[in-house]
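S.,

Sequence below, as promised.
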Amino acid sequence: MKLGSVVRRHRGLTIGAAIVALLLLVGLGAVVYADRANTYDLDEERISFRDGAQRLDGVLAKPTRGRGPYGLVVLVHGDGPKNATNDGFYRPQMEAYARAGYATLSWTKPGVDGAPGNWLDQSMEDRARETEAAIAWSRSRPDVDHARVGLWGASQAGWVLPKVAARTPDVRFLIAVSPAINWLRQGRYNLLAELRAEHASAERIETEVRRSDETRRLLQEGASHERYRAALGDAADMPADRWAFARRNFAADASADLAGVRVPVLLMLAGHDVNVDVAETEAEYRRLLGGRAELTVRHYPGAAHSMVEKDIEDSRVDTWFTAVFAPRDLFAAGYLGDQRRFLAGR
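The prediction came back faster than expected:
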C-alpha cells in the first residue's frame, strides 16, 4: 500500500469521526434542551384519596416559592382515558397557576395506567361526586387556602363543573374550557362539523345523519349493545363499555346546573372547535349566568378544541417538536396568561 493512500484513508477516518462527534454533540444538546424545556417550576407530590370505596391516585402540584397556604385549582378531565397530568399536557397550566400563587390537584381516571375501576362506568353525576371527594380531601391540607378553591375543566367537564359549583360552597370560581351545553346537540354539531371539514358529499352527510338518528333512538330506548350492533351493522363503532357510557350520559344538559352557579366564571372558547358549538355555549352561559354570576369570556381564534394552535395540531411533526422542545407554545396565544390573570384577581 502506498503512503499517499494511507494518508488519504487516515484523513477520511478523521473527517468521519468528526462528523459522528458533531452529530453526537448536537443530539446531546437537543436532549439537554428538551429536558430543560420540560422542566417546570413546580413541587409535585403524589397523593391518594377516596370516593367511597374507589381509590383515586393523583398529583398535588404546588408553587416552589412562598410557604402557603396556596389557593387551589382542581382539574376535571374531559373525555377519554387520562392520567393525572394528561401525559404532561397539563404541566404548563399547573406552572401558570403556581405563578399566580395556586396549587393544582388532579387525579388519574379509574382504569387508566393501572388504576382500579373503569372511567366508562361513570355518569356525569359520578364524576361530580368524585370531584367533591377531591375537594373534601383538600380540606385536610394546611397548605391549601380553602377560601381560594376553584375548578378547571375542559370539554366533557362542562357537564361536571356546574353541578359541583352549584352545590359546593368551597368552590369560589370556575374556568370552563370548550364546554358544551347539551350532549345530543353537541354530538350532532360535531358530526356535521367534521363532515363539512372533510368536504363530504350530500349523500354521505344524509347517510351519516340517518345513522346518527338511529343511534339516538336506540339510546333513548335504552337498547342493549347487541341491539345497537344489529341495527347499525358495520357502522356500530362503539364497543360495549362505550355504548353503556353513552347510554348513561346522553341526556346530559348543563342548563339547570349553570342557572345555579353564583361564582365568577372564566369561559374560554376556541375559534376552530369542531367538537362544540361555541356560539351556543357562549349564548347560554351569558343567558344563564347574566346578572347572577360574574362571567369573563375569552376567545382564541387560532385554537382547536384542545386550545392547541390549530396549525400545530394539524401536523403530527409540529405537534411532536413543539411538545418536546417548547411545550408552553402548544397553546393558543394568551391562553395561559389569561388564566393566570384571572386567578390573580380572585
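Residues 38 and 107 are 20 Å apart (CA to CA).

Coffee later?
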